[in-house]
Amino acid sequence: MASSDQIKALLKSHLEGDNTRFIAVAAQVAAHEARLGHNKLAEELLSLIDAAKARQFLPSKSDKPIPITQPRGELAGLLDVTYPKTRLSHMILDQQVSEKLARLIREQRHLVKIQEHGLDPRRKILLIGPP
After folding, report:
1. Residue 24 in 3-state DSSP?
2. Backbone dihedral region of 55: left (phi > 0), alpha (psi from -120 to 50 degrees) or beta?
3. Which of 60, 69, 28 is nearest to 46 (CA)?
4. Residues 6 or more apart from 52 whose CB is under 8 A from it?
5. What is the pLDDT of residues 64-80, one digit of tens each?
6. CA 108 to CA 62: how far, in whole Å?
7. Is the pTM of this model over 0.70?
8. 100-113: per-residue pLDDT in tens?
9. Residues in Cβ contact with 9 at an 8 Å cutoff, skipping those fewer than 6 apart
10. Which of 3, 11, 50, 102 sits 20 to 30 Å CA-CA off 69?
């Protein structure tokens, strides 16, 4: 049986949306069960972990963008909303650029937590060069 710390870590990582940590803790639980001789349970957990890892790289139906409200009146002609077809996972980026983009996205996802500490997440990014 998983320890209370592992269960708390699983729930915390799930609530924060930290899939990498969630999978790491789940692997620890599987290893713990294997050490206890619960091989069948350990194998089932590992197969679920493998499925989760494979699914992590596939686009999810819940990854749909949040719709932006269309302005009315005079502003309606100024704003054109489109959603990109290319996903971040489809891009080939330098590791440094990829890490900076991941940090920017992570900050936006944890907006409330950052604001609780009196800080603001990054809101601007300068993109240069050819597409």
Report:
1. helix
2. alpha
3. 28
4. 19, 22, 23, 26
5. 555 666 667 777 777 77
6. 17
7. no
8. 888 988 888 888 88
9. 21, 25
10. 102
